[in-house]
Amino acid sequence: MDSRRGVSGPRARSFCWVLATCIQLLLLVELSQGRKLQQSSRQRRLQPYTDSTNTARHGPAVKSFQVSDGSWVDCVPIEQQIAAHHPALKEHIIRMSPSSYLNLQQNHVKPRSSGLHPQSFAREHGGCPEGCIPVQRRDPKQPLLRKYQTPTLSGQGTPHEYAVVGMPSSKGAYQGSGAVLSVNAPVIGDPASEFSLSQLWVVAGQYDNNSLNTAEVGWQVYPSQHPSDNPLAPHLFVYWTADAYKSTGCYNLGCAGFVQTNNNWVLGGTLSPYTTLDAHANNEDEISLVVLYDSTIPGWWLSISDTTIGYWPSSLYTTLQASADLLQWGGEIFPSATTVGHTTTAMGSGAFPIEGYPVTAYQRNVTYANSPNTFFDATLEIQGVTNANCYNSSIEQGDFGSSWGSYFFFGGPGGGNAACVKQN
Ligand SMILES: *[C@@H]1O[C@H](CO)[C@@H](O)[C@H](O)[C@H]1NC(C)=O
Ligand SMILES: *[C@@H]1O[C@H](CO)[C@@H](O)[C@H](O)[C@H]1NC(C)=O
Ligand SMILES: *[C@@H]1O[C@H](CO)[C@@H](O)[C@H](O)[C@H]1NC(C)=O
After folding, report:
1. Minimal CA–CA distance to 183: which of 27, 320, 289?
2. What residues are annotated to the active site?
3. Which DSSP string corresponds to 356-402?
4. pLDDT tens digit string along 122-172?
């Protein structure tokens, strides 16, 4: 048991408050040293926490919780989150909410849900004290894994498989993306290394010369990344890269990059309840995602099910600084190289698109913005189905129900289908 666990709410709150006050005092000292700072003393500024290890990390937790799924959540002062270590975010003033002209909420489609928060941390503990953000504790020995590629690439020894749709690629055309995702728990054939996900990609630049930049969000079942917190459940994730997945970026708050502002959503935390094909074959659990550019950060806000979570600052990026070239939505799996035959890892619910609602996984109300103000129904095209006998995608229209806007079904059973064979 962690000794910090017993700290009571009010005490932790006042600790955070004292910390924030100290940081404000430091700011005042800076001011008195002749720094030209025009911010009010209430502003929060990123402050890298350093210790003897000299590695980028979050500041010490002021309160810690164990969630019933087995995970630990550390509440760290918002100023001392790991993003403070990014060289481009020195002295960065944290934006606590989107600028006024920008209405993230207005563009949100209400997800179907029980009305309860879809994460156990918030349900069980209510969130972190004011002024702190929740950070899912990781085993320090666990490697920080990277993604490798974009959905448009296929072949060339790159083993990921996709069923992805998108808006046509057009330089600088996009400033927002949204979708409502069914939340499923696809079966993972080899839990030691494989994953299966549903997400949206906001993309700029080119893979070939490493100028590819992304902001990504969705859920994934990735047992080896979550060995001790309900490994077979879907986990919320964010991801980014500024160099085609070469050396920058990571999942969640694993490295300096994404700036979190919200105090009760846990990046990397499980989403529950969720739909399992076997249990009720009925997609009823959803999350609503919106990513939207805001020139006053500047950067890209992430909002989930009507709540602002945080942002990817533009300064992380080289090509995604003010607009995106490509928006994509769909599923991806990573098959282990050692699996004999095609992996039985499923995508989506494990059902093919032809089975339709409510069995097949989907993303509905898929929208895009070409300015920071208005969202439109996406005009979707199939952009990456690596092997339709394993995982497929189908864009649906009209007859299912116009209230879903633009939507598609995706997924499949992988090697569970006899016609799905491993390709080289
Ligand atoms: C990468 O390639 C694109 C398209 O060919 C080009 O427009 C861009 O300037 C290149 N970027 C870099 C960093 O070389
Ligand atoms: C994949 O889905 C498309 C619809 O997008 C359909 O036309 C095609 O027949 C499907 N392929 C297989 C192998 O099921
Ligand atoms: C999105 O879905 C809701 C139902 O949840 C529907 O009422 C609404 O019209 C849809 N919006 C769009 C833009 O299609």
Report:
1. 289
2. 216, 332
3. -TTTSEEEEEEEEESSSS-EEE---EEEEES-TTTSEEEEE-GGG-G
4. 999 999 999 999 999 987 666 666 665 555 444 444 478 999 999 999 999
- Output the six-digit token pair for 57: 């990390």
> Which atom number of ligand 3 is nearest to the Cα of residue 375?
13
Cut 0.90: pTM above it: no
- Per DSSP, the three-state class of 123 is helix
**Could you tell me the two tokens for 275?**
């739909």
State the CB neighbour count (10 A cutoff) for residue 153.
Answer: 15
402-424: pLDDT as tens digits = 578 999 999 999 999 999 998 75
Return the number of other C-beta atoms located less than 10 Å from residue 392's C-beta. Answer: 22
Q: Is 287 helix (H, G, I), strand (E, B) or coil?
A: strand
| Domains of the chain with CATH codes | 100-112+139-151+158-416 (2.60.120.200)
CA of 144 to the centre of ligand 1 (A): 28
Counting atoms of ligand 2 from 1, which one is nearest the CA of 388?
13
Query: How large is the average pLDDT for residues 109-113?
Result: 71
Number of the ligand closest to the Cα of 165: 2
The whole-number average pLDDT for the span 351-357 is 93
Q: What is the mean pLDDT of residues 28-33?
A: 44
